[in-house]
Write a structure and sequence with these properties.
Strand content: 15-25%
Largest sheet: 6 strands, parallel
Strand order of the largest sheet: 3-2-4-5-7-6
CATH topology of the largest domain: Rossmann fold
Structural class: alpha/beta
Shape: globular
CATH superfamily of the largest domain: Thiamin diphosphate (ThDP)-binding fold, Pyr/PP domains
Number of strands: 20
């Protein structure tokens, strides 16, 4: 049966588990828009700017664990989305990103809206190609979805000329390739042997920044079997270990000196995932203590040896490998001693958290609130099971020890690209039946305020929390740490957002989002409660020091 290529595209999207198409259409996307008229099962989510559309897809993909689909407009639209695409590549988010290209029949004349889309996308995607025939569209899409989901996961790109989508295709919809899911590494038992020889108090597991939530069961099993502390990265894109677990050590700051201090005295370090030693700015410090054995469990050989040579490297499904190692290790650890250590650690952790929270709450006596006090007030007001999309530097302080993130419920803009958390929260809200909190600074909120409009249009319960100090505070802190001239002179060039000050209350209202401003913990708790009582989004502005 002959069908249009655009109809084959929709059939493949359905088969690949896509329920939402995120985009911003233009004239080159009209064939796709026409196809969607009779496709009520596929929801088109409009982003008023392309970076917003792509970051919404990023949040949807991370929250669902499936590959997201994005459709952008020509070279300019792809260019607008590049920052979010850089962030998606850094986070390892599986995305199929497409953009409309001009009609192939006059591309040679370089018509208006034409451009080298593949050349633009290639540096920040796993694969980039342009489809030139309707017959090739199905195969190209199948390959794109397979590559996006293959370890290491990440975005791929297809340029779709508008006439190609309207071409008749006689061939059937190509099937998905039958890809066998990788199993555990056959050397999982050897890892258990190595770990059994170490003092469990001197073994640390480092959760890499790309570890998916599905690896959580294996990670928890190994930590509990051996009684090993698990650490994450402060700038990790997601978490695969529950923050409420007594073996959670916390997040390591993106500073080699801080990482070294946390790992000092360790006999062995287990890295689970691609990359665990992350720092900014540069310091001439080796984060891994000399003499400490490094055991690396990764999904692909590409990750092995990237940071340090491994004393033992295992390649396979990470969660399954960790679970197999845990099963082999558990009988070799004295259960009574393990239980006693777990109880002691849980007690010490509870006392530390209580003392830290009390000390931070005491800071609320002075206004504006310290960043730690403001973040703690929001955390304490959040309902259980809420999802967090975070890019706020306000969360980098002592309060980071109190964030009890759960697998699949916490995401961070790993690529360092501001403007991703707000739209990602909207995309995630389309995928989960739980409130979503976007934690952003005032500077970051100005990178993608269009997300407010998309949240209002989709009527999802997203609470946008803007910590407002009217400056790029993280830049000022970096300048101080590095001893930069602008910090020494007390004149931070280009780091203030105060003249004029951004009126977030009216900005939110202009986008159709109710807004509140709260400056004390009690007021913050009440504002969050009101936000959770609304069916749609809310913006909460909190002044901070």
């Amino acid at each position: 049966m002959t069908r249009l290529a655009r109809d084959i595209l929709l059939d493949i999207l359905r088969d690949e588990g896509v329920t939402h198409i995120f985009g911003n259409p233009g004239s080159t996307e009209m064939p796709l828009m026409d196809a969607l008229v009779d496709a009520p099962d596929l929801t088109y989510v409009l982003g008023p700017q392309e970076a917003t559309a792509l970051a919404m897809a990023d949040g949807w993909a991370l929250a669902t664990g499936r590959t997201g689909f994005v459709n952008l407009h020509a070279a300019g639209g792809l260019g607008n989305a590049m920052g979010a695409l850089v962030a998606a590549r850094a986070s390892g988010t599986p995305l199929v990103v497409t953009a409309g290209q001009q009609d192939t029949r006059h591309l040679m004349t370089e018509p208006w809206l034409a451009g080298d889309l593949v050349g633009i996308a290639q540096p920040v995607t796993k694969w980039a190609a342009e489809v030139r025939r309707g017959e090739d569209l199905g195969w190209a899409l199948r390959r794109a979805f397979a590559l996006a989901a293959a370890p290491p996961t990440g975005p791929v790109f297809l340029s779709l000329p508008m006439d190609v989508l309207d071409q008749p295709v006689a061939a059937p919809v190509p099937p998905r390739s039958a890809v066998a899911r990788p199993g555990p590494s056959p050397d999982a038992g050897l890892l258990a042997d190595r770990l059994a020889d170490h003092d469990p108090d001197r073994v640390a597991i480092l959760m890499a920044d790309d570890l998916p939530a599905e690896a959580a069961a294996g990670l928890v099993a190994l930590a509990e079997a051996g009684g090993f502390a698990v650490w994450g990265s402060q700038v990790g894109s997601r978490t695969a270990f529950p923050g409420a677990n007594p073996w959670w050590g916390g997040v390591l700051k993106a500073d080699f000196a801080a990482i070294r201090a946390a790992l000092e005295g360790m006999e062995a370090v287990v890295v689970a995932g691609g990359r665990a030693f992350i720092a900014y700015p540069y310091r001439d410090v080796r984060p891994l203590p000399e003499g400490a054995a490094l055991y690396h469990v990764a999904a692909t050989p590409v990750a092995i040896g990237r940071e340090f040579p491994a004393d033992l490297a295992l390649v396979g499904d990470i969660g399954a490998t960790l679970a197999a190692a845990a099963a082999a290790l558990a009988p070799r650890i004295d259960p009574a001693r393990r239980a006693a250590r777990a109880a002691a650690r849980a007690g010490a952790r509870a006392r530390h958290r209580a003392a830290l929270a009390a000390a931070i709450r005491a800071e609320a006596a002075d206004l504006p609130l310290s960043p730690d006090a403001a973040v703690l007030a929001v955390l304490e007001a959040m309902p259980e099971g809420a999802l967090i999309a975070n890019e706020a530097a306000a969360t980098f302080g002592r309060v980071s020890e109190l964030i009890e993130a759960a697998p699949g419920r916490y995401f961070f803009a790993r690529g360092g690209v501001l403007g991703c958390a707000m739209p990602a929260a909207v995309g995630a809200a389309l995928a989960v039946a739980a409130p979503v909190f976007a934690l952003v600074g005032d500077g970051g909120a100005m990178y993608s305020p269009q997300a407010l409009w998309s949240a209002a249009r989709t009527r999802r319960q997203v609470v946008f929390v803007v910590f407002n100090n009217r400056r790029y505070d993280v830049l000022q802190r970096v300048a101080r740490d590095l001893g930069c001239a602008n910090a020494l002179a007390g004149r931070f060039v280009g780091m203030a957002v105060d003249d004029p000050a951004v009126d977030f209350q009216h900005l939110a209202a202009a986008m159709g989002v109710p807004a509140e401003r709260a400056d004390r913990p009690g007021a913050i708790a009440a504002a969050v409660a009101r936000a959770l009582g609304r069916p749609g989004p809310t913006l909460l502005e909190i002044p901070v020091r």
